[in-house]
């Protein structure tokens, strides 16, 4: 009678069984290793792609910012050059006007055909000069208190009148001549025009900044 013994069969086929197990294990580890390597390669490729896209985006942003900065610098330089030209032109006009001051403040004619004669001296009171300085924002000269308590002279009474707001020395001669006043007006007018030119350039710079 035939009898089958598993233990005997295993003993007889041990080598075959061992080889089969090794083949199965080898296939498993090979497949696992191959899958991991493939996944890692795909991940590395995706990372490289993202890094490349980021580098391109960053480069574009840097180039755009650099281009805008260069444009701003050029525009600022152009405005500064234009302002310098305007200020120089104003300074040239100022010098020309100042040279003409003595000519128009020393002699005059009563008619086109008349001979030029000396111009009478004009009197500008201290109050006149004080009001002029105040109107242009200059430091206001301190008033000199009047020592007159009463007077029959209307002009003298005006110096101490609270209603008029005059100072005690407002009606005195300031010593300022026509030439002094005109020269001051030329300098002040030039300064105002230069500051106006600066303000215009600043407004243009800010309004076109974006």
Write the layout of secondary structure elements.
Elements: H1 6-12, H2 14-106, E1 107-108, E2 117-118, H3 126-135, H4 154-159, H5 178-207
Antiparallel strand pairs: 1-2
Descriptive report:
The protein is mainly alpha-helical. The protein folds into 2 domains: 6-75; 92-207, no CATH class. The protein has 5 helices and 2 strands, in the order ααββααα. It has helices at residues 6-12, 14-106, 126-135, 154-159, 178-207, and strands at 107-108, 117-118. Strands 1-2 form a two-stranded antiparallel sheet. α2 runs antiparallel to α5. The protein is rod-shaped, with a radius of gyration of 49 Å. The model is unreliable at 145-151 and 157-162 (pLDDT under 50).
User: β content, as a range?
Assistant: under 5%
The percent of residues in helical segments reads 55-70%
Distance between the termini: 105 Å
Number of strands: 2
What Rg do the Cα atoms give?
49 Å
Order of helices and strands: HHEEHHH
Major sheet size, sense and barrel closure: 2 strands, antiparallel
Q: Segments where pLDDT lies below 50 for 5+ residues?
A: 145-151, 157-162
Oligomeric state as shown: single chain
Protein name: Lipoprotein
Keywords: Membrane, Transmembrane, Transmembrane helix
Organism: Leeia speluncae
